[in-house]
From TrEMBL:
Organism listed in the record: Cognatishimia maritima
PANTHER family assigned to the protein according to its UniProt record, in alphabetical order: ACETYLTRANSFERASE (PTHR23028)
Keywords, ordered alphabetically: Acyltransferase, Hydrolase, Membrane, Transferase, Transmembrane, Transmembrane helix
Residue stretches spanning the membrane: 45-64, 84-103, 133-153, 159-177, 213-233, 245-263, 308-326
InterPro entries listed in its UniProt record: Acyl_transf_3_dom, Acyltransferase_3
Ranges where the Acyltransferase domain occurs: 11-323
Protein name per its UniProtKB record: Peptidoglycan/LPS O-acetylase OafA/YrhL, contains acyltransferase and SGNH-hydrolase domains
A Pfam entry, by short name: Acyl_transf_3
MF GO annotations: acyltransferase activity, transferring groups other than amino-acyl groups; hydrolase activity
Source organism phylogeny: Bacteria, Pseudomonadati, Pseudomonadota, Alphaproteobacteria, Rhodobacterales
Amino acid sequence: MADRGGRLAHVDTLRFVAAAAVVAQHYVERAAQGGADWFLRLGPGVFGVALFFMISGFVIPLAVQKTLSWRTYWLQRLFRIMPMYLVTFALVIMLGWIGVPAYFHVSDFGVASYISNALLVFEYVGHPAALGVAWSLSLEYVWYAFFAFVFIVSKPKHATHVCIGFAICLIAAALWSMWSATRLPFERIAMLNAALWGYAVWSWSAGHVSGRALRWCGAISAVVLIFSQWVGFKHFQHPSVRFETGLIAWGAASVVFTSAMTIKSLQRSLVLSSQSCQKLGTISFSVYLLHEPVNHCLGMWMSGWSQAAVAVLATVALSFVSYRFVEMPSLKLARIIAASRKAPHAPGLLMTPIGTHQSTANK
């Protein structure tokens, strides 16, 4: 169900749900001070990030339908994330300099750490992160590159094959991890698997793959995910994530995403089609980036649940401002630059728009 601007209302609502879950994880951790273990064991943070990656896997092919070249594709991806991230990074640096305890470490960064954080490559060069959620943005660019590769070497009708192939590789990686006694970053690898599942669901919704193929893909991916999570968080011990927590969070994210994207009656429901939820979904990226700095800043004067309540209100208000004055102008600038330099069409980049071909969704 799309609004006048072409946005899918139910997708924006899912973005809101994902951002709210991540905010809940971080704010409850600080406000409850160990008194809400039952809630944190549900893994709302993992749920939110997993849901974000599934959504990304669904919407990137939608964006590619309107893209005329790979240069435009990367230009749009760059301007979607980097401007708002760099604004938040600058805010974090400032907070570190003025003495906000959570960001003391940023004031001690060397030039290399500042550069690696600005470019979102800090994890790959062994530097500390300035912003806690930035690891997922770094991984998002890995997904963008992986999707480009997948789309060059295959077609949307092969999306379920790609998803199953990645799942098989994940099993092989898990078995090697056990054999070599080397723990791999299974949570991050699983996020790429989540994005591929989103791509598979999009391919089904666009009529490229059958319902039967999607169900087989989902079943295989679920089994592989459970096994890899068991290896990563049960066979190997993790200091902050339990296997049961991951299982609940991943299961919930998969059910919520798949149900919302495949059941038309749910998409038309009052919740998923709510204009209020949709508006909150449009600012979800700003909320995701700003909620931690806002909370840490307020922590200098407040504490407990009152801090969390004020932080929620402040984060939402600032996010509307940043969406209006940072995100929207950045996306507009990307379109202007793309239009000013007409690059040759990338072979096979354009895809058949949804609704212009025979759907196989009911097969």
